[in-house]
Design a protein that fits this description.
Helix content: 55-70%
Distance between the termini: 88 Å
Number of strands: 0
Structural class: mainly alpha
Oligomer: single chain
Order of helices and strands: HHHHH
Shape: elongated
Largest sheet: none
Number of helices: 5
Length: 109
Amino acid sequence: MTLFLSFVVKYFTAPFTMYLNEEIRAITNKMAKLYDSPITTVTKESGLSRPTVSKFFNLQTIKPSSIEKLYDLCLELIEKKEVKRKLSLQKENTLLSGIEPTLQTSLNV
């Protein structure tokens, strides 16, 4: 096989996506940290089949349009979870501001 032909086979037969596997891996790892069942969550939200979502999380080949849809959805879900967490922390800080922590023991000394 000529050098040019091997280049064409290598780079033009694999599906093209605008995301690198490292970027997809980072997103799927973040989803695994934030959600108990990330594949189930993404499957419900995306409308795609569970095998397609599972292949995305395992970096297997799926259609480029599915990769883009799943990647964008994961970003939205991560952002939603982060915003919810930030609001919870703000609420906690507001409720607990001005309250002095005290040590309580069951021992009567």
